[in-house]
Amino acid sequence: MYRTTAHRPALVAGIAIVSVALLAACGTSNGSSDSGAQEKLEELGEFEGAVSILAWPGYVEDGSNDPEVDWVSPFEEETGCEVTSKTYGTSDEAFSLMKTGDYDVVAASGDASLRLVAAGDVAPVNTDLIPNYEGIYEFLKMQSWNSVDGESYGIPHGYGVNLLMYNTDEVTPAPTSWSVVFDGSSAYAGKVTAYDSPIYIADAAVYLMATQPDLGIENPYALDEEQLAAAVDLLKAQRANVGEYWSDYLKEIQAFESGDSVVGTTWQVIQNSVTTGNTAVVLPEEGSTGWSDTWMIASEAEHPNCAYAWLDYIASPEANAQATAYFGEAPSNQAACEFRDDCEAYHAGDEEYAAQVWYWSTPIAECLDGRTDVECTDYSAWTTAWSEIKG
Amino acid sequence: MRLSRTTRVALGTVTVVILAVVYLPLGVVFVNSFSTSRNLAWPPPGFTLEWWGRAFRSQGALEALATSVQVALASTAIALVLGTLISLALQRHSFFGREAVSLLVILPIALPGIVTGIALNNAFRTILDVRLGIMTIIVAHATFCIVTVFNNVLARLRRTGTNLEDASADLGAGVWTTFRLVTFPQLRSALFAGGLLAFALSFDEIIVTTFTTGSGVTTLPIWILDNLFRPNQAPIVSVIAVVLVAISIVPIYIAQRIGGAEQIQK
Amino acid sequence: MPLTTDASRAPSTERAGAVPERTTPARRLSVFLNTHARARLALLLTVPLTWLVLVYVVALAALLVTALWTVDSFTGEITQTWTLDNIITVLTGALYQTVTVRTIAVAVLVTLIDIVVALPIAFFMAKVASPRLQRILVIAVLMPLWASYLVKAYAWRSVLSEGGVADWATGGNSPGFGLPATVLTLSYLWLPYVILPIYAGLERVPNSLLEASSDLGASTVTTLRLVVLPLLWPAIIAASIFSFCLSLGDYITVNIVGGANQLLGNLVYTNVGAANNLPLAAAIALVPIVIIFVYLGVVRRTGALENL
Q1: Per CATH, is A163-287+363-390 categorized as 3.40.50.300?
Q2: Residue C7 banded pLDDT, cuts 50, 70, 90
Q3: Do domains A50-160+291-359 and A163-287+363-390 have the same CATH topology?
Q4: How many angstroms away from the CA of C130 is the closest CA of chain A?
Q5: Domain coordinates in residue numbering, chain A
């Protein structure tokens, strides 16, 4: 054993600690993205040979899930842009994944799109470069969730609603109201499921709009303190009967197939994927929240030309029909209904219907329903509330 | 202490029961890899070899496996070097801050994986401004693999002492020669055992990896996580698990033989 | 210390005719290192310490510094305004206190279960089994480590689910998903990590001591209590470090079999990912870090850290 004593140990330790602290404090500054106006592409150049897409599951299918379901391969053959895709479960996940800068294209719902614009993670889209943009329904273009200050930030993809799914053997009589997952959820204690995201608070608000009208909720995304508290109470009561929350759609498919969940919020694609044949979906009488998605381009996209090529492709009638049919939503391209026979059921092109859906939007302090006498709760308040609801 | 026969039998039974419980879920996985049901219902409705065929042809799985092996080998190599250096320093010298260094080596594995993961993710992206990718994974894995090598080598150094090294130096061998011809052979089996554990640790690591990987790099655990719930891929995941367990017999057996041989020599 | 540092004396064991150069730089360096322990130490420590400090300590410090900052909720950018708000929220918020207690309880329970299960099997392996059986048993204990952590957790999900093996075996009374399932699965996952140090510790207890104790008239139980246990104690503590620390931060198992429950790891994970609030996540991460530091500090005295 060799003895070695360092002189002035305290000084050495002190210098070490200070330098580490300085280095650490200088770091953790943010990346080079600035929140100012981003540049939009003026003209298309050469295709780069690759494109990286971040989307909801079921939006970018290349046959690996189901060999029959593939609209990516024709795109790859046509443009030579090889597609790598990643799916996410909630808009929050999408928002934080876009910060890594790894993706060129993102399919964002209304509750993520404006946040992405504000954070400078997406660039305005030059719709002149996208021939298929013309064929999209007018009432979907330049809406509050896909455009800012007259600049378009993306291509509308489709719109749909969140539905109530139930196990036809266990849940009788067939439910027609959200009450089966709220006030009546104790009948299915331990087998109720709900969407694992703060945005689900809006679903509780939609239910309260019908059952507690004196709360005065006009818009489920514009909740003041009192209204939010009421929604939180409702959700805490529901929590006692929830078996699992879901954000991975495959997990919900599996839970319904095995019988671990028997009733809860769902997407049409989940109902379409369940193989046991004992589930059904319904749009409850109180109405529902929904989503209208936009294909957006990252502000620092590595493959901008392939990105524009994808946006054009997915807005074309056939691809748009395939993608929206698979997921179970109304298409955005007017000619898509030639390739689908279920357009009626999804209210394709029905402007009135589309206006009734409470599309996912980001709650902000400035009340979305126009009220100026109170301050509404913003998304970070919803996020804190959601953690508390789950306990 | 002489144990009565009943005690021995009782202990043996308990051991068997525990091992049975340990292998039960693995048995379920094994059976599921042959099940016709995609969502792994129990009891399995039918048997098929389809998944085994698909697993060996699955591009994604094979690529992920290759990446995992690469990462594990690189991390183990780095950990071997760093672990040996640190244990030589700590065992053969006594200095101010010795305990702190010892603690520092243990920290990456003692602190929760998610803490290490987000710390490294934050550091890579904001302070060092590097693109996340296979190199960042290797750096992360090497950091927490150091401790397994460190422990094994430290224990071995403690057991062997410095006599042989002193004698070697007396006889005029230089520092490097002493290490090469005297110390290293004594450490070999400890290095192998430590390296094997480090390899296993890195191969199966998921939490830190999810935070330090770039979008194009997929290690086997990440591939499994992505495909765990996919109806077409979940049974393939079962196949892979079975294969891994089966293959693992080889290195474990070798490690045991080497360790056992040394004990006999004593 | 070597008896000679004078390189001018030719070593007699060198091969005939191969007399080394006395003054090559390599030789001089070797001599220098042989005589200056501090230089040797410095050489040994530079690379690994630089690595550990640069890669790990700085990263950890940076993360903890972030806990003192805030994030702009709409854009998600971290603003470097110094504030103790996050830490205060974590320390006083009812949610965080509940989850912390829940997580510690799970970790302690898992550790206890693992130690209770590991002791008999380790004892059998170390003291009762023949050398050949010993080797087989060690392999049998180590093999499950190679089955992916995720696959094992998922296997438990399918075992515990509706209509799974547990339902089938207990006639419909499977515990289902939730905290019991989490404790069960975590105990299962960390068991090999707990068995190994205890087994190693038991191996180090010389059989002669046990025989002497028996010769002196002690019963088996007394021997175990007064001879084996004190010697084994550091190894048991070392084993507990694994299961305790690993359980404290785990979030994946909870996601798979924990139903709607949250543990500390989940809170950190949602705040890093979904909520995009790194400062709050860092503040929450402080809780397990402090707990583990305290735990390591307490067990240091028992000498467990030598037995990992």
Answers
A1: no
A2: very low
A3: yes
A4: 38
A5: 50-160+291-359, 163-287+363-390
Q: Quick check: A222 pLDDT over 70?
A: yes
- Residue count of chain A, please give it: 391
Residue B69 forms contact with C (CB below 8 Å): no
List the subunits that have 3+ CB pairs under 8 angstroms with A: B, C
Tell me which CATH code domain A50-160+291-359 carries: 3.40.190.10
Nearest in space to C251 (alpha carbons), one of C266, C273, C230, C233:
C266
- How far apart are the C-alpha atoms of C48 and B265, rounded to whole Å? 33
Q: What is the 3-state secondary structure (H, E, C) of chain C?
A: CCCCCCCCCCCCCCCCCCCCCCCCHHHHHHHHHHHCHHHHHHHHHHHHHHHHHHHHHHHHHHHHHHCCCEECCCCCCEECCCCCHHHHHHHHCHHHHHHHHHHHHHHHHHHHHHHHHHHHHHHHHHHHCCHHHHHHHHHHHHHHHHCCHHHHHHHHHHHHCCCCHHHHHHCCCCCCCCHHHHHHHHHHHHHHHHHHHHHHHHHHCCHHHHHHHHHCCCCHHHHHHHHHHHHHHHHHHHHHHHHHHHHHCCCHHHHHHCCCCCCHHHHHHHHHCCCCCHHHHHHHHHHHHHHHHHHHHHHHCCCHHHHC
C-alpha span between A331 and A354 (Å, rounded) = 12
Instruction: Walk me through the domains of chain C, giving residue ranges and CATH numbers.
Output: 25-56 (no CATH), 94-307 (1.10.3720.10)
Residue C1 to residue A65: CA distance in whole angstroms = 68
Interface mutation vs chain B, best among C13, C54, C60, most B CBs within 10 Å: C60
Are A2 and C262 a contacting pair at CB < 8 A?
A: no
Reported ipTM: 0.86
Name the residue facing C164 among B7, B42, B107 (closest C-beta). Answer: B42
* CA-based nearest residue to B126, from C101, A26, A182: A26
> B149: domain CATH number?
1.10.3720.10
Q: What is the pTM of this model?
A: 0.85
Portion 4-63 of B in contact with C at CB < 8 A: 4, 7-8, 11-12, 14-15, 18-19, 21-26, 28-29, 32, 40-43
> What's the pLDDT at C195?
92
Q: Say if C172 is an interface residue toward chain A (CB within 8 Å).
A: no
Contact list, C120 vs chain B (CB under 8 Å)? 11, 14-15, 18
Nearest to A314 by CA among A324, A327, A299: A324
Using pLDDT thresholds of 50, 70 and 90, give the confidence band for residue B264: very low
Q: Are strands A2-4 and C78-79 parallel, antiparallel or unpaired?
A: unpaired
- Hunting for tokens 């830490």 — which residue is that? C87
Q: Is pLDDT larger for residue A147 or for residue B41? A: A147
Contact A279, A173 (CB under 8 A): no
| Distance in Å, alpha carbon of C260 to nearest chain A alpha carbon | 5
Query: CB distance from C32 to chain B under 8 Å?
Result: no
